[in-house]
Amino acid sequence: MNTTQNEKRSRLPRITEMAHQLLAARIQRGDIVVDATAGNGHDTLFLAELVGDMGQVHAYDVQIDAIKTTGERLMTQGYENRVTLHHDSHTAIRELDDALQAVIFNLGYLPGSDKTVITKADDTIAAVEEALLHLRSGGIVVLVVYVGHTGGEAEAKALEAYVRALPVRDYLVLKYEYINPDNRPPYIIAIEKK
To answer: In the 8-state DSSP scheme, what is residue 182?
Structure first.
């Protein structure tokens, strides 16, 4: 076995890789899913691959540059028909009529853009509440929580208080994080609807 294979086998998955593993375990072709924070389109593209031609992805972002970048990324793969782009807050999930299988949030700010435009606790919690209302039994909401920027710690604290109060008879909540790095890495909160 070469060194690269050995390193790959022994390395724990990065947070974004684990988020994708959680989603891939739940999503099948034909499902309807949401990328609540389209950003640069990486999660949107991943979801579009999973749902296939018969599925649908709704991707939201308040920044027009994020919507444009995501649209371009989808077009390069020929997936633009699988995705509806919404230049809107993730709180607009409330307007969907569909039963959702999965929702992903990548919180914080758009990499490479204005770091003062961030997700905020009140809007994120409202969007998570809407996502849970639309989620099918067995579906999942995955939140990648970033705490290393201004406002990130406050959003994380409020979000954790909210998910800890979810009734266990209806939801199971997981927290996946690295606990020994000192650089305040992101972590995952995953909510399964029973």
So the answer is: S
Strands lying side by side in the sheet with 56-61:
83-87, 56-61, 32-35, 100-106, 135-145, 187-193, 171-176
- Plot region of 13 (φ>0 → left; ψ -120 to 50 → alpha; else → beta): beta
User: Per the structure block, which two tokens stand in for 91?
Assistant: 């709180």
Q: Would the pTM of this model clear 0.90, i.e. be above it?
A: yes
Per-residue pLDDT at 2 exceeds 60? no
| β pairing state of 187-193 and 135-145 | antiparallel
Chain center to CA of 154: 19
User: What is the phi/psi pair of residue 88, to 5°?
Assistant: -165, 165
Contacts of 138 (CB under 8 A, 6+ apart): 26, 101, 192, 193, 194
Quickly tell me which residue has 């993730």 as its tokens. 90
